[in-house]
Amino acid sequence: MSSIFIDPQIYTGRPASAEGRLDKEMAVYDLLDKLEIPFTRVDHEVAMTIEDCQGVDQLLGIEICKNLVLCNTQKTKFYLLLMPGDKQFKTKDLSKQIGSSRLSFAPAEYMEKLLNVTPGSATVMALMNDLENQVQLIIDEDVTAQEEFGCHPCINTSSLKMKTADVLQKFLPAVHHEAIFVKL
C-alpha cells in the first residue's frame, strides 16, 4: 500500500471528532449528512496530485477525479472541471465545447476567494462555498458514467467515495449549481 496513508482504514461517514479538522472539511460532512448522502472516507497525508491519489483510489476502489479550476484570460469567468484522473487535459478541446478561448489555470487567490480551497484541494464539494455562483461546473461525461465518485472534502488530507447519482441529483441542486457536460 502507498506510503501516503497514516492509517489505511476506511471509515463510514464523518470523523468521530472535529479535533484537528478544518471547519470547511466539517462543513462538507454536515451538508452530506443533511442531504442524506452516504459516503466512505479515508484519511491520508497531503495528496496534491492525481499520482498522489493512486493509493487512495486502490483503497476506496474508485478513480478520484482530476479537479481543475480554470479561468479566462480576463479572470472574469471561472470553471471547475471534473475529469477522469488518467485523461490528459487539452485546453483547446474544452474551449471549443464551452465557447471560451484562452483558458488557463486559475491563480490560487481566486480558488481561495471563490471556493475556499487551496491548490491540490479543488473538489466539487467546494461549490458549497460559491454562494454567488461565480464558478461554472464542467463535467466530462466519463465521470458521470462511473457509478461511484471520489473527491476530497475541501482539504487534500481526506478522500471520500459516494454514489455519482447522489452528487448529481442531491448535492448539486442543494448548492444551486448546474453542470455543463462535455466529452474530452
Structure description:
The chain contains 6 helices and 9 strands; from the N terminus they run βαβαββαβαβαββαβ. By secondary structure, it is an alpha+beta fold. The chain has one domain (11-182): YbaK protein, CATH 3.90.960. The strands form 2 sheets. A 5-stranded mixed beta sheet has the order 5-3-4-6-9. The chain has a 4-stranded antiparallel beta sheet with strand order 1-2-8-7. It comes from Anaerosacchariphilus hominis.
Backbone shape: globular
CATH class: Alpha Beta
Helical percentage: 25-40%
State Rg. 15 Å
Family: Belongs to the PRORSD1 family.
Organism: Anaerosacchariphilus hominis
Domain YbaK/aminoacyl-tRNA synthetase-associated: 44-168
GO molecular function: aminoacyl-tRNA deacylase activity
List the helices and strands and how they pair.
Elements: E1 11-12, H1 23-34, E2 40-43, H2 54-60, E3 65-71, E4 78-84, H3 91-98, E5 104-105, H4 108-115, E6 135-140, H5 141-144, E7 148-151, E8 158-163, H6 164-174, E9 179-182
Parallel strand pairs: 4-6, 6-9
Antiparallel strand pairs: 1-2, 2-8, 3-4, 3-5, 7-8
Protein name: Prolyl-tRNA synthetase associated domain-containing protein
Domain YbaK/aminoacyl-tRNA synthetase-associated: 44-168
InterPro entries: ProX/PRXD1, YbaK/aa-tRNA-synt-asso_dom_sf, YbaK/aa-tRNA-synth-assoc-dom
